[in-house]
Design goal:
Layout (H helix, E strand, L loop, with lengths): L1 H69 L5 H15 L4 E6 L5 H7 L4 E7 L3
Parallel strand pairs: 1-2
Helix pairs in contact: 2-3
Length: about 130
């Protein structure tokens, strides 16, 4: 009987040690997971903040750019006028226009008015 009790006590001690190790391992795994989750969350928030900063800067820059275009400081009217002449004189029926960095496309719309354009694709980040 004494031997059995000693064996039971030893088994329970090993079981307790095993449970503590499992608990410690679980805590370690959870801590690593929590740290990784927090790090990912921080990265997401940093990206969101930078995106907001960029968008605000872009919006401010867009207003300035629109003033430059309206005042024709960069000869947009002449460029779109030349484009219109080419489109009306040389473009075939049903042509496709891909306009990169088109903004709200007022110049392109004016240049394409009355032309034989079949499709207009405007791409911009605004």
């Amino acid at each position: 009987m004494a031997g059995e009790r000693h064996f039971e006590a030893e088994t329970q001690a090993e079981k307790g040690l095993s449970e503590r190790r499992s608990l410690e391992e679980g805590r370690r795994i959870y801590s690593a997971y929590a740290a990784a989750t927090v790090a990912r969350s921080r990265k997401v928030w940093v990206r969101r903040i930078w995106l907001m900063v960029i968008l605000l800067a872009f919006a401010k820059g867009l207003a300035t750019y629109q003033k430059v275009v309206a005042a024709n400081y960069m000869a947009h009217r002449e460029v779109y006028g030349a484009l219109r002449q080419v489109l009306l004189g040389e473009a075939s029926n049903g042509f496709v226009v891909a306009d990169l960095a088109c903004g709200t496309a007022p110049g392109s719309a004016a240049a394409l008015a009355g032309s034989k354009v079949a499709r207009y694709i405007g791409i911009d980040i605004s």
